[in-house]
């Protein structure tokens, strides 16, 4: 594995640990503090520090080390976790995220990061011990000096670990520095001795400067756990030979190590003695005992298992060993059942594209088979279609992720924004396990952020105003996700004072968006807030007042083939509902034609299909009376100014009348409209292809697709078409009213 790939893994895992730290801190801030949460935060900080130390990222190690020490004191009940400390740890966590994002050279060049570093270390001072403060000062000295100090210190041999290190010969070639591992080990304790083994060093003629020929035997005195020491080598352990013997290791364990390593036994024994891991007497006695491999009864000796050794030495009771083995079996079973692997998102997208091509070819084969009319071929094509559908669903499920991860990030946003506004806000999350396409989740961050901040700034009242209104002083903000009619709905609601309709109307008239005599429904009035530059804020603040944000929300949601509904009640609160398709890659659609042009309507939006000629068409209006309800509709040939192809014109002349017109009734949210077409071709699975830049401004088209016969079909943007149909109907009403007034 190359250094770049290993570093990328470090960045990904560091981000996961930082997110875990934030989630635990949020729970602690809400009063759910317990030892396990504190241990989780400590482990996350410790792992980040350890991984950073391997790569020589001293700016991360030095800062995180102080944070880790404060957390360790809290774990030992030397200091109390209060709100002030949580606030500082939050800031430290954010700074750690900034440090992870820059290299050591970039950090040394950025004075603002260094100042933040110093400010936060000063903020942590009340919770650091005298020993920790000395450690902070030592962190400012070069790492080599610290290592030299560790090597020259003398002490007892308690908690002495022995580490046998045989790194891969490609270690240097992959960008790994053996010294960085040794440096980090020195941060876990005191390195008593290092023996560098050069037995494998080649002759000058065979020397390769990029190959590692050294091996190391290290004696480490440390209170660290085996897992912590093993994590030092996490990025090289797959292709290296690393043995870690704990302080409680028996002489037999050292003998097994000596036998396993390629160097001469006597030489390795001397190295272990020099390291202080063994005494000369123990080594000699063990080597003599090892020479007798056959017992008096003639049976070969068997090395006892670890559990047996621990029981014989009275260090662990037999019942505890038995329980540990049972737990170990359970853990192995759980790991084997729920293994997870990391997949590059680009590879996953490539797989989806290939499956899209498979779907298109399956449709092509189906069309060809209909002309042959052979039962066996038809059966084979049906089976092929079934398998294709299963492969498609399985592949799409790989891109589906729970929205809970996105929702969780807003806990921190709500906390910080509430503090900035001086408000009390409680965030409730519902439907966190609802899944949708990964690409959509990534693009939802900005729209949701704008809506949440808008709700906290404009919707939720101040503590004083809520008290005056007889409400709980803590405002309620809710994020919810659920399925509805083949779509995903994401709802953001609050129990604030609602949207001031009169204020919106006044502002819209002031900006010339509407006329003073315009009559708008509540829904139309609410949607004016999405107009670019529109804001009802009395003054510009850090959060609002510039009219930037809500127009971005609408644009981003529409780019995802979604729509937004707004409902509000004065004094009771507001709710924004974002409706989105389940996926943007492969959809179930309905194939229609207008003037020889192919269109696909998303299946989930269709209510029914009717013959337009059999229903009353209101004269002068694109509107029909459907079972007592007036439904506006659009004529596709008029909207897109389509002209019939030469073949269709000839066919119409032969029939001597225009083809019958069909109407597809569609619904998105609470809005209903019709789409008038010439031909209904039926259901179809279609692969969504993005439009080129030249078509970006084309309203009503959300993408394109390739049909099985090789022709191109346009995928309709139903929310935009419904909006256009309703707007046309309103315009026709206004036109008729003006005409009547003129008469």
UniProtKB/TrEMBL annotation:
<dbReference type="Pfam" id="PF01584">
    <property type="entry name" value="CheW"/>
</dbReference>
<dbReference type="InterPro" id="IPR008207">
    <property type="entry name" value="Sig_transdc_His_kin_Hpt_dom"/>
</dbReference>
<dbReference type="InterPro" id="IPR002545">
    <property type="entry name" value="CheW-lke_dom"/>
</dbReference>
<feature type="domain" description="HPt">
    <location>
        <begin position="1"/>
        <end position="103"/>
    </location>
</feature>
<protein>
    <recommendedName>
        <fullName>Chemotaxis protein CheA</fullName>
        <ecNumber>2.7.13.3</ecNumber>
    </recommendedName>
</protein>
<feature type="region of interest" description="Disordered">
    <location>
        <begin position="132"/>
        <end position="152"/>
    </location>
</feature>
<dbReference type="InterPro" id="IPR004358">
    <property type="entry name" value="Sig_transdc_His_kin-like_C"/>
</dbReference>
<dbReference type="InterPro" id="IPR037006">
    <property type="entry name" value="CheA-like_homodim_sf"/>
</dbReference>
<keyword id="KW-0808">Transferase</keyword>
<dbReference type="GO" id="GO:0006935">
    <property type="term" value="P:chemotaxis"/>
</dbReference>
<dbReference type="Pfam" id="PF01627">
    <property type="entry name" value="Hpt"/>
</dbReference>
<dbReference type="GO" id="GO:0005737">
    <property type="term" value="C:cytoplasm"/>
</dbReference>
<feature type="domain" description="Histidine kinase">
    <location>
        <begin position="376"/>
        <end position="584"/>
    </location>
</feature>
<dbReference type="GO" id="GO:0005524">
    <property type="term" value="F:ATP binding"/>
</dbReference>
<dbReference type="InterPro" id="IPR051315">
    <property type="entry name" value="Bact_Chemotaxis_CheA"/>
</dbReference>
<dbReference type="InterPro" id="IPR005467">
    <property type="entry name" value="His_kinase_dom"/>
</dbReference>
<keyword id="KW-0547">Nucleotide-binding</keyword>
<keyword id="KW-0902">Two-component regulatory system</keyword>
<dbReference type="Pfam" id="PF02895">
    <property type="entry name" value="H-kinase_dim"/>
</dbReference>
<dbReference type="InterPro" id="IPR036641">
    <property type="entry name" value="HPT_dom_sf"/>
</dbReference>
<keyword id="KW-0597">Phosphoprotein</keyword>
<keyword id="KW-0067">ATP-binding</keyword>
<feature type="modified residue" description="Phosphohistidine">
    <location>
        <position position="46"/>
    </location>
</feature>
<dbReference type="InterPro" id="IPR036097">
    <property type="entry name" value="HisK_dim/P_sf"/>
</dbReference>
<keyword id="KW-0145">Chemotaxis</keyword>
<comment type="function">
    <text>Involved in the transmission of sensory signals from the chemoreceptors to the flagellar motors. CheA is autophosphorylated; it can transfer its phosphate group to either CheB or CheY.</text>
</comment>
<dbReference type="InterPro" id="IPR003594">
    <property type="entry name" value="HATPase_dom"/>
</dbReference>
<dbReference type="Pfam" id="PF02518">
    <property type="entry name" value="HATPase_c"/>
</dbReference>
<dbReference type="InterPro" id="IPR004105">
    <property type="entry name" value="CheA-like_dim"/>
</dbReference>
<dbReference type="InterPro" id="IPR036890">
    <property type="entry name" value="HATPase_C_sf"/>
</dbReference>
<keyword id="KW-0418">Kinase</keyword>
<dbReference type="InterPro" id="IPR036061">
    <property type="entry name" value="CheW-like_dom_sf"/>
</dbReference>
<feature type="domain" description="CheW-like">
    <location>
        <begin position="586"/>
        <end position="727"/>
    </location>
</feature>
<dbReference type="GO" id="GO:0000155">
    <property type="term" value="F:phosphorelay sensor kinase activity"/>
</dbReference>
């Amino acid at each position: 594995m190359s250094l770049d790939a290993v570093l990328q893994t470090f960045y990904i895992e560091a981000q996961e640990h930082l997110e875990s730290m934030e989630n635990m801190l949020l729970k602690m801030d809400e009063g759910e503090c317990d030892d396990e949460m504190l241990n989780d935060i400590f482990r996350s900080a410790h792992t980040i520090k350890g991984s950073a130390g391997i790569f020589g990222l001293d700016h991360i190690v030095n800062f995180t080390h102080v944070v880790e020490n404060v957390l360790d004191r809290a774990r030992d009940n030397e200091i109390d976790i209060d709100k002030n400390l949580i606030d500082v740890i939050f800031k430290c966590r954010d700074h750690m995220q900034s440090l992870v994002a820059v290299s050591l050279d970039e950090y040394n060049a950025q004075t603002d990061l260094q100042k933040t570093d110093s400010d936060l270390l000063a903020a942590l001072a009340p919770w650091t011990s005298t020993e920790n403060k000395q450690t902070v000062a030592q962190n400012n000295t070069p790492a080599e000096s610290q290592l030299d100090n560790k090597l020259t210190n003398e002490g007892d041999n308690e908690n002495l670990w022995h580490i046998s290190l045989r790194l891969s010969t490609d270690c240097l070639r992959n960008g790994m520095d053996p010294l960085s591992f040794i440096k980090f080990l020195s941060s876990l304790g005191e390195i008593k001795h290092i023996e560098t083994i050069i037995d494998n060093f080649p002759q000058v003629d065979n020397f390769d400067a990029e190959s590692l020929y050294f091996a190391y035997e290290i004696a480490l005195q440390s209170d660290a756990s085996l897992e912590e020491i093993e994590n030092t080598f996490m990025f090289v352990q797959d292709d290296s030979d690393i043995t870690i013997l704990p302080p409680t290791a028996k002489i037999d364990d050292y003998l097994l190590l000596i036998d396993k390593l390629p160097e001469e036994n006597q030489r390795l024994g001397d190295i272990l003695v020099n390291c202080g891991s063994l005494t000369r007497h123990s080594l000699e006695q063990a080597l003599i005992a090892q020479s007798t491999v056959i017992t008096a009864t003639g049976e070969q000796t068997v090395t006892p298992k670890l559990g047996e050794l621990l029981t014989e030495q009275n260090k662990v009771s037999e019942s505890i060993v038995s329980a540990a083995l049972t737990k170990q079996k359970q853990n192995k079973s759980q790991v084997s059942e729920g293994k997870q692997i990391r997949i590059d998102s680009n590879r996953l997208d490539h797989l989806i594209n290939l499956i899209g091509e498979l779907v298109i070819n399956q449709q092509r084969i189906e069309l060809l088979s209909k002309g042959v009319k052979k039962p066996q071929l038809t059966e084979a094509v049906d089976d092929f279609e079934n398998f294709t559908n299963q492969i498609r669903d399985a592949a799409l499920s790989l891109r589906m992720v729970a929205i809970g991860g996105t929702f969780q990030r807003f806990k921190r946003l709500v906390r910080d924004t509430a503090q900035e506004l001086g408000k009390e806000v409680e965030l409730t999350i519902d439907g966190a396990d609802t899944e949708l396409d990964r690409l959509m989740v990534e693009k939802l961050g900005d729209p949701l952020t704008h809506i949440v901040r808008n709700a906290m700034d404009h919707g939720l009242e101040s503590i004083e105003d809520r008290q005056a209104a007889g409400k709980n002083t803590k405002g309620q903000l809710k994020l919810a996700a659920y399925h509805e009619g083949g779509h995903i709905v994401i709802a953001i609601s609050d129990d604030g004072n609602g949207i001031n309709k009169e204020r919106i109307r006044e502002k819209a008239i002031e900006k010339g968006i509407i006329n003073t005599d315009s009559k708008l429904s509540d829904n139309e009035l609410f949607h004016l807030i999405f107009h670019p530059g529109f804001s009802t804020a009395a003054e510009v603040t850090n959060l609002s007042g510039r009219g930037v944000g809500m127009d971005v929300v609408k644009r981003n949601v529409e780019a995802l083939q979604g729509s937004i509904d707004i409902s509000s009640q004065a004094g009771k609160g507001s709710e924004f509902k974002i409706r989105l398709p389940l996926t943007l890659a492969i959809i179930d659609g309905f194939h229609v034609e207008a003037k020889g042009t192919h269109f696909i309507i998303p299946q989930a939006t269709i209510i029914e299909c009717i013959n337009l000629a059999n229903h009353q068409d209101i004269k002068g209006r694109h509107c029909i009376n459907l079972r007592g309800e007036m439904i506006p509709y659009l004529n596709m040939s008029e909207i897109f100014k389509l002209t019939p192809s030469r073949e269709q014109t000839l066919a119409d002349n032969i029939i001597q009348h225009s083809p019958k017109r069909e109407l597809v009734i569609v619904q998105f949210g609470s809005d209903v409209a019709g789409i008038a077409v010439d031909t209904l071709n039926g259901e179809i699975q279609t692969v969504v292809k993005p439009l080129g830049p030249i078509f970006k401004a084309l309203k009503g088209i959300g993408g394109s697709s390739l049909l099985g016969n090789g022709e191109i079909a346009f995928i309709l943007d139903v929310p935009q078409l419904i909006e256009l149909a309703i707007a046309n109907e309103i315009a026709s009403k206004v036109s008729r009213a003006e005409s009547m007034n003129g008469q």
